[in-house]
Every structure is written in C-alpha cells, then in structure tokens.
Specification:
Elements lengths: L9 H8 L21 E6 L9 E7 L5 H5 L9 H19 L6 E6 L2 E4 L9 E13 L3 E11 L2 E14 L12
Antiparallel strand pairs: 1-2, 2-5, 3-7, 4-7, 5-6, 6-7
EC number: 4.2.1.59
Subcellular location: Cytoplasm
Enzyme class: lyase
Length: 180
C-alpha cells in the first residue's frame, strides 16, 4: 500500500476508482460522474470533532454538471442524495485509507438523521464536505460511524448524523457489467 498522505488530488481519486491506489481487490471510489468530490483536502486518523478521524473534500461546481440538466426541468438543482452519497464515499475512503483489513466491497448501511437547510444551484462555486469519524469497528464487519456536513460556498446546507458504512470481505459480483 502506498504511504498514507493527508490530501489527494483529482487524478489520485480517479486512480482509486480504477483500483490503482490501494489495489484492485480493495473497495474503490466511484468513477465520474458518480464521484462527488474533486479532491481530498485533509484526511487524518486522529483528528476531527471526536478525535477518531477527519475527512474534508471539495467539489467545484460548474453550471454544466450532468445532474443540473436532468434533475428537474427548468429548475436546476443538485439532488440531495448526491451530496449524501458524497459523505458516504468519504467514510468508505477513510476506512480503506486506514488499510488494516482486506475487503472487496464498501456499502452504505444507513444514517441516523439528515437535515437539508439549503440547496446546491448552478451559481454555487464550491461545495465543501466534512466527515467527523465517531467510531470504527473491526469484527466480521468493518464499519465506521460518522457525522457529516455539506457546505455551499461556506454555508452549511446539509447535516447528517450517524452515517454508517461497512466494508465486506465477501459479496457477490453484480450481474450487471459496467458500460465501457
């Protein structure tokens, strides 16, 4: 495994999605267009609000992003579920980044509470995500529990508590093969 770093750029994230960062059998980030951030600006094992880990990422918003064209006709807005998925992507990356166990799949397992107080519209310049790791469990299931926020141009617009994501050693392959 490569040495742990405290930040990653877009090319690094793409390498992770292709299985080139942590290894081809390790869980991967989704590739575009489902990758919900452009860079990891900070990742640490001991930081954050709970002292158990912190991940910060950013997404540059451009008015021509794919979801603005298809979410609502004549009402361009980023779907809230994509911001939530970005938070889960961060928790999954964190668990793989820790690199203590070999697993093949990452899956979102739920959350406690979610509040939306704003929206991501085409005029927004930057979305900043923060995940504060509350707990990491390692047994048959490796799982993390975290709280997360999504900010649009510095204003908190989503708050999620108790995001749960697990890593699994054995899950069946999808019968659907990716395009390409």
């Amino acid at each position: 495994m490569p040495g742990l770093r405290s930040n990653y750029d877009y090319e690094d994230l793409l390498a992770c999605g292709r299985g080139e960062m942590f290894g081809p059998s390790e869980p991967k980030l989704p590739l575009p267009p489902m990758l919900m951030f452009d860079r990891i600006t900070e990742i640490t094992e001991g930081g954050g609000k709970y002292g158990r880990g912190l991940v910060r990422t950013e997404l540059d918003i451009k008015p021509d992003l794919w979801f603005f064209r298809c979410h609502f006709q004549n009402d361009a807005v980023m779907p809230g579920c994509l911001g939530l998925d970005g938070l889960w992507q961060m928790v999954g990356f964190y668990l793989v980044w820790l690199g203590r166990d070999r697993h093949v799949r990452a899956r979102a397992l739920g959350l406690g509470d979610l509040k939306f107080t704003g929206q991501i519209l085409p005029h927004v310049r930057r979305v900043a995500y923060t995940v504060d790791i509350k707990r990491v469990m390692r047994s048959k299931l490796v799982m993390a529990i975290a709280d997360g926020t999504v900010c649009a141009d510095g204003e908190v617009i989503y708050r999620a508590s108790d995001l749960r994501l697990g890593l699994f050693k054995h899950l069946p392959d999808s019968p659907i093969k990716p395009a390409g």
